[in-house]
Amino acid sequence: MKRSEVLSIIAEQDGLLVANIGFPSRELYALHDRPENFYMLGSMGMASSIGLGLALSQDRRVYAIDGDGSILMNMGSLATIAHNAPGNYCLVIIDNGAYGSTGNQPTYTSEKTNLADIARAAGNRNVKRVGTIDALKEALRTSQDRTAVIVVETEPGNDTVPVIPLDPVIIKERFMKAVQS
Amino acid sequence: MIDARIVDCIESAGIDMVLSLPCNMLDGILQEIDTRGLKRIPVCREEEGVGIAAGAALAGKRPLLLMQNSGLGNSINALLSLTRLYRMPLFVLMSHRGGPGEQIEAQKPMGRAVPGILDTIEIPCRFMKTGGDLDALTSFIGSTFEGDAVQAAMLSRELWNEAQ
C-alpha cells in the first residue's frame, strides 16, 4: 500500500483533517484539497498534538495523519492522547519505516520498534495495526465513536507532487471557517 | 494570594485551555487552576503543548502554555514554524528560574539566556517582579488574542517573596 492510497481513504471520511509536514500534506493537497484539511508546513512532530488540541476544542471528528518518524520525535504525545483524548479523535500513523520527506532514510520502526505496541503501552485502548486497504477501512468504520490510534503499514516512497502553493495564513483561515461551519 | 491573583488574570483574559508542565514555583498556580475547574492538560514536553495549543486555536480557543523558562528551549521551533507561521495566538507564561535566589546551578544558563532569546525571536515579554506588575497582566494576555500574536510573561521569584 502507498501513502497516497491511505490519504485518499482518510480524505473521504467526514471530519477535520490534520496532515503531517512534507509529502503527506503535498500528496493530500494534490489528491483531495478541501477546506477541512489543515496542511502542516513546518514543526515536524506536532501533527498528533495539533489534532488532539482540535479534538478537545470542538465536536467534529478529527483525523490526524502522522508518520513514524514524526511520532518518534514526539512520543510523549501518545501518553497525552491516552489520558485526555475525547471520543472524536482518530490518530492515523502512516508507518513506512522511513523519513519519507527527507530522502527515505530508514527510521527505527523499519527494524525493532513497534508503534502500535508503544501506543498501547502508553495507555491507548483502541489501537489497530493494519496493512491492507480493506483492513484500514474496517478499522475506521469500527472506531467511529471512540478515540482511535491506527498504525498503517505502507511502503516507503513519495508521489511526484508539487509543493503547496497556499499561504499559511490562508490555510489557517480557510480551515477555521470550515471548523465553524 | 499571588497564585490566586495570577489565575484571576488568566481567567479574566478569557483563557480557556492551559497546557502545563510542572515547576516548584508554579505549583500553587497549578493547584489554583484545578480548584477553579479551568481546563488544564498536562503535557510531556513543552513543544507538545505548543502543538495542542495550535489545535485549540484553530477551533477559536484561547490557550496558554504554563512552564519554566527552561522549556522555551524545548519549544522554539514549534513556536516559530507553527504558531508564528500561521499567525495563531498563544500566551506563554513562564516561571523565571535561574535568577536571583536560584539554588539549582543548572537553571542559571537558561535563566540568563532566555530574555535575549525572546528578544531574538521577537516574542514580546513582560517581567512580573512586583504585585504592581500584575495589574497590567490581564490586558496584556488579552491583547495576544486580539492580534493573533505570540506573547509571554516571566514570573520572578520576587513576586512570591514580596507577598510573604
Figure out the total of helices of chain B: 7
The number of E-state strands of chain B comes to 6
Name the average pLDDT of chain B.
96
Q: Per CATH, which architecture of chain B? A: 3-Layer(aba) Sandwich
Question: How many β-strands of chain A, per DSSP?
Answer: 8
The largest β sheet of chain A comes out as:
6 strands, parallel
Q: Radius of gyration of chain A from the CA trace?
A: 15 Å
The CATH architecture of chain A comes to 3-Layer(aba) Sandwich
Write out the strand line-up for the largest beta sheet of chain A, numbering strands in chain order: 2-1-3-4-8-7
Domain count of chain B, please report it.
1
**CATH H level, superfamily name of chain A:** Thiamin diphosphate (ThDP)-binding fold, Pyr/PP domains
Instruction: Please tell me the overall pLDDT of chain A.
Output: 97
Per CATH, the superfamily of chain B is: Thiamin diphosphate (ThDP)-binding fold, Pyr/PP domains
Q: Based on CA inertia axes, which overall geometry of chain B fits?
A: globular
How would you sum up this structure in a few lines?
The complex is a heterodimer of chains A (181) and B (164). With 181 residues, chain A is an alpha/beta fold. Chain A has 8 helices and 8 strands.
Structural summary, described in words:
- The complex is a heterodimer of chains A (181) and B (164).
- Chain A contains 8 helices and 8 strands; from the N terminus they run αβαβαβααβββαβαβα.
- Chain A has a single domain (3-175), classed as Rossmann fold (3-Layer(aba) Sandwich), CATH 3.40.50.970.
- Chain A has helices at residues 3-11, 23-32, 47-57, 68-73, 76-84, 115-121, 133-142, 168-180; strands spanning 16-19, 37-39, 62-67, 89-95, 98-99, 105-106, 127-130, 148-153.
- In chain A, helix 1 (3-11) packs across helix 2 (23-32) and helix 3 packs parallel to helix 5.
- Chain B is of the alpha/beta class.
- Chain B has a single domain, classed as Thiamin diphosphate (ThDP)-binding fold, Pyr/PP domains (Rossmann fold).
- Helix content of chain B is 45%, strand content 18%.
- Chain B has 7 helices and 6 strands; from the N terminus they run H-E-H-E-H-E-H-E-H-E-H-E-H.
- The A-B interface holds A 18, 38, 40-43, 45-58, 74, 76-77, 79-80, 84, 168-169, 171-172, 175-176, 179-180 and B 17, 41-45, 47-61, 63, 77-78, 80-82, 85-88.
